[in-house]
Amino acid sequence: MTHPTSAEIAGRIEDLFGAPLAALASHAQDQPPGMLSALLGLHDTLAFTERSIAFHRERLAQLVHPERHISAHEVPHVLDCARRLAEAVAVRDTQAVTASAVLHSLVRVEPPEPSRASTAAVVTAPAAPAASPAPGR
């Protein structure tokens, strides 16, 4: 199952809020916690886990390189690296699914356009007829 990457999530957040991610992060720092800060947190965790996956995958490839002999001393290092890689993948998958689900549930609300009726001149009510004195008897 393919999950969205942190770059795809960043693009969706930017589309939703209509600003670059850096500007949104700066804006969120000055605001009380809300949806924007939650989405930025999801994105940051997703980006971190993607870097962690790349690092641990590369390190594991070094440790088990075919030309390298694995001693009994190195086996725990191989297992630890594989465990960390698996944890990072699990966190990435969870964060990606959560961020994607939240972003799919939100829609960008455009400010209402001024209608023609509100820009037209205000129509006033017709003037009430002048009260005539009551007919004399």
What's the structural blueprint in terms of helices and strands?
Layout: H1 6-17, H2 21-29, H3 35-63, H4 75-105, H5 116-119
Notes on the structure:
With 137 residues, the chain is an all-alpha fold. It is built from 5 helices and no strands. It is elongated and about 75 Å long. The termini are far apart.
Number of helices: 5
Strand tally, please?
A: 0
What is the approximate shape?
A: elongated
Q: How do the SSEs run, as a string of H and E?
A: HHHHH
Tell me the β content: under 5%
Class computed from helices, strands and strand pairing: mainly alpha
Query: Mind telling me the C-alpha Rg?
Result: 31 Å
Mind describing the biggest β-sheet?
none
What's the N-to-C terminus distance?
A: 96 Å
Task: Calculate the mean pLDDT score and round it.
Answer: 82
Helicity level: 55-70%
Q: Report the uncertain regions.
A: 120-126
Give a quick rundown of the structure.
By secondary structure, the chain is mostly helical.
Comma- or semicolon-separated keywords:
mainly alpha; 0% strand
